[in-house]
Amino acid sequence: QGKQGYPGRPGPQGRQGPQGFQGNQGFQGNQGFQGNQGFQGNQGFQGNQGASVGRSSYVIISDPGEGSATASCRFGDAALGGGGIVTKGDPIRTSIPFGGSPATPATGWTVEHNSQAGDAIRAYVVCAA
């Protein structure tokens, strides 16, 4: 047997094999550092003008009701606030303005409570004339 010969030249590159299976999901990394504060936003739009008190204000008290009552301002006037009075029984559970729109003020007030026989509730509204 003779001496071993010199190594030959590398052959051409083979074809790419098929894609392997997807590996398992890695562990969750550490939380990153807090970013810098963002830029100040643009100024918002001007809001609608609120109800003006005008020259006078007045209070309307509704007739007694069972379960709910509503007090309304005179036509064209605006509700500035309101509430309710319960003669006995459960406390008031809802006290909200009503009427108006996003561009106009409320025009009255509604109150509700869990009525029992004989429990009376009245609503009141403070109005601007």
Describe the structure.
Helices cover 0% and strands 31% of the residues. The chain has strands spanning 57-61, 68-72, 78-86, 92-98, 108-113, 121-128. The chain has a three-stranded antiparallel beta sheet, with no helix packed on it. The chain has a three-stranded antiparallel beta sheet with strand order 2-5-4, with no helix packed on it. The relative contact order is 0.25. By secondary structure, it is mostly beta strands.
- Identify the strand order in the major beta sheet: 1-6-3
Oligomeric grouping of the chains: single chain
Major sheet summary line: 3 strands, antiparallel
Query: Structural class of the helices, strands and pairings?
Result: mainly beta
Q: Please bin the fraction of helical residues.
A: under 10%
> In terms of per-residue confidence, which ranges show pLDDT below 50 for 5 or more consecutive residues?
none
Distance between the first and last residues' Cα: 123 Å
User: Strand content of the residues, in percent?
Assistant: 25-35%
Overall body shape: elongated
E-strand count: 6
SS summary, helix count? 0
Question: Tags for this entry?
Answer:
129 residues, single chain, mainly beta, three-stranded antiparallel sheet
Give the secondary structure arrangement, pairings included.
Layout: E1 57-61, E2 68-72, E3 78-86, E4 92-98, E5 108-113, E6 121-128
Antiparallel strand pairs: 1-6, 2-5, 3-6, 4-5
